[in-house]
Structure formats: structure tokens, C-alpha cells
């Protein structure tokens, strides 16, 4: 009977999810060399190659693809058994700024759950300023936000680049104020847009304000207004219209992670958050 090593299976699943030995090592709080040793130990134990690695790509082998779901089941059963020994459920509240909650959000939540099924994860979406205020009041355990003003603390996860996005059909009539959509008056990304327009002497008006991200997306997608979005989370079907409309270039920012958690399991969850964001925000080769 083949006995599986939990840490080796953890290493395999992390590599499969991150498609990177480096990111997997970061998520598990270890080194790339240690991850490679654990994977080799697992492959030797089951007698099959699970990961195919080239200088440009890390991917599952055919046997690895078959084994992956079973590996997840194995880890979930192990974590459930360990969690059953704990009398009190643990809760982890993470705030994610609406402008940075992009395609990495579903894999982020999946990774957190796979990492620790006994952890009850709650997500709060809001603008960066509101989340930073909530973090400082102790209402949330961690915040993933756009860097605000000159605040220099927090762990940098990735750069954040902004653009003016609108529907291909959007038209701006000369002599009329530029029509903008924004999340709320306290949204820092709104400030980036309005300050850039004011500095360039371009008149503007807000036609959608404070309706939430879905309302802003709907207004922009329908061609009623334009909005500033991170290039990674612009609504599907919209395009960058800044050059066509002669709009000013927008300054880049950074996505940062704030947390004061110190216990081992929570710090491990934070490493998973950081690794997922870095993986999904990494520049394409």
C-alpha cells in the first residue's frame, strides 16, 4: 500500500495551481529547492511523473491531471480531520478594493479554502480608503488595496496601471464636458481621473456616481460614459480610449497587502494571497 506524504501532496497541488515552482514555494513559505524535492518524493512514491517542466512552462502531465482532483480530496480530508480537533471555528475577513478585485479573485478564494478548509473566509469589497479605515479600526484582518497617497507600509503585491476605458461606440462631442462614471465621491481612482482632467484643462461631468461597480460597468459598456479602470479589470468589450480622445496619461500605482496577523495559520493564508496576486499580475512572457 502506497502511503502519501501530506507536505509532498501540498507541494504538487500548489505547483499545479500556480504553474510556477517559485510561486508555489512562496505560497507554502518554503524554498523552490524544497518544493522540487517534495515533488520528486511524491513522484517516486506513486511511480509517475506529475509535472512537466520546461524553461518557459510548468504544466501537468497526463498522470498529474488525473491525480490532481484526488490530491485535493486527500488534502481536504486531512485538513478536515485536523480541524475537527479544534473546538472553535476560525474566521478570516479580507477586504479587497473593487478596482483590484480582478480575475485573481476566484483562484484566490479557492486557494485559501484549499489551504485551510477549516478557515471561514469572508470577503468585503469596497474602495481602498474605506477598507484602509476598516483595517485600522480592526474590522478586517487583511486589506488588498491600491496604495493611497504617501502611505508606505504594506507588502507590495503588484504594479497597477490605469487607463481610460469606454465602449467602442462611445462618442465625445467637442465642446461638451467629458462624461465620466465613478464608484463614489471617496473613490481614489475617481480622484486620479478628475485630477488628471483638471490639470489638462479638460471639462468633465459625472453622469453615474455611487451606483456600485455593476452600475459603472453597465454605463461604460453601454457607451453612456467612460471610466478609469485598471488595465487588468476593464469590463469585457471595452477599449482604451485615452489616445483617441486626447486624454492625459494616468499615473501608475501599486497593489499592497496590509495585515497585522501573526499566528502561523493566518500568516500562511497571507502568503497564499500574495502568491496568487503575484502570479496573476505577473507580466506576460
From TrEMBL:
<keyword id="KW-0805">Transcription regulation</keyword>
<keyword id="KW-0238">DNA-binding</keyword>
<comment type="similarity">
    <text>Belongs to the LysR transcriptional regulatory family.</text>
</comment>
<dbReference type="InterPro" id="IPR036388">
    <property type="entry name" value="WH-like_DNA-bd_sf"/>
</dbReference>
<dbReference type="InterPro" id="IPR000847">
    <property type="entry name" value="LysR_HTH_N"/>
</dbReference>
<protein>
    <submittedName>
        <fullName>DNA-binding transcriptional regulator, LysR family</fullName>
    </submittedName>
</protein>
<dbReference type="GO" id="GO:0003677">
    <property type="term" value="F:DNA binding"/>
</dbReference>
<dbReference type="InterPro" id="IPR050176">
    <property type="entry name" value="LTTR"/>
</dbReference>
<feature type="domain" description="HTH lysR-type">
    <location>
        <begin position="4"/>
        <end position="61"/>
    </location>
</feature>
<dbReference type="InterPro" id="IPR036390">
    <property type="entry name" value="WH_DNA-bd_sf"/>
</dbReference>
<dbReference type="Pfam" id="PF00126">
    <property type="entry name" value="HTH_1"/>
</dbReference>
<dbReference type="Pfam" id="PF03466">
    <property type="entry name" value="LysR_substrate"/>
</dbReference>
<keyword id="KW-0804">Transcription</keyword>
<dbReference type="InterPro" id="IPR005119">
    <property type="entry name" value="LysR_subst-bd"/>
</dbReference>
<dbReference type="GO" id="GO:0003700">
    <property type="term" value="F:DNA-binding transcription factor activity"/>
</dbReference>
Amino acid at each position: 500500500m502506497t502511503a502519501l506524504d501530506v507536505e509532498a501532496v501540498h507541494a504538487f497541488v500548489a505547483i499545479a495551481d500556480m504553474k510556477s515552482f517559485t510561486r508555489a514555494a512562496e505560497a507554502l513559505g518554503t524554498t523552490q529547492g524544497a518544493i522540487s524535492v517534495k515533488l520528486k518524493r511524491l513522484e517516486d512514491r506513486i511511480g509517475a511523473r506529475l509535472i512537466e517542466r520546461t524553461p518557459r512552462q510548468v504544466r501537468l502531465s497526463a498522470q498529474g491531471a488525473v491525480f490532481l482532483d484526488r490530491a485535493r480530496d486527500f488534502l481536504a480530508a486531512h485538513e478536515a480531520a485536523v480541524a475537527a480537533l479544534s473546538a472553535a471555528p476560525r474566521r478570516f475577513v479580507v477586504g479587497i478594493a473593487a478596482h483590484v478585485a480582478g480575475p485573481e479573485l476566484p483562484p484566490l478564494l479557492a486557494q485559501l479554502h484549499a489551504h485551510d478548509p477549516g478557515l471561514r473566509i469572508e470577503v468585503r469589497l469596497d474602495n481602498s480608503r474605506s477598507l484602509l479605515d476598516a483595517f485600522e479600526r480592526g474590522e478586517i484582518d487583511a486589506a488588498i488595496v491600491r496604495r493611497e497617497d504617501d502611505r508606505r507600509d504594506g507588502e507590495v503585491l503588484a504594479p497597477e496601471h490605469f487607463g481610460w476605458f469606454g465602449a467602442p461606440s462611445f462618442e465625445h462631442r467637442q465642446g461638451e464636458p467629458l462624461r465620466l462614471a465613478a464608484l463614489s465621491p471617496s473613490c481614489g481612482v475617481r480622484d486620479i481621473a478628475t485630477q488628471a482632467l483638471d490639470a489638462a484643462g479638460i471639462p468633465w461631468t459625472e453622469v453615474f456616481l455611487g451606483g456600485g461597480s455593476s452600475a459603472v460597468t453597465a454605463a461604460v459598456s453601454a457607451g453612456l460614459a467612460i471610466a478609469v479602470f485598471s488595465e487588468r479589470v476593464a469590463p469585457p468589450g471595452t477599449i482604451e480610449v485615452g489616445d483617441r480622445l486626447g486624454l492625459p496619461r494616468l499615473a501608475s500605482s501599486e497593489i499592497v497587502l496590509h495585515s497585522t496577523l501573526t499566528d502561523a495559520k493566518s500568516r500562511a493564508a497571507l502568503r497564499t494571497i500574495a502568491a496568487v496576486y503575484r502570479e496573476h499580475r505577473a507580466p506576460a512572457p
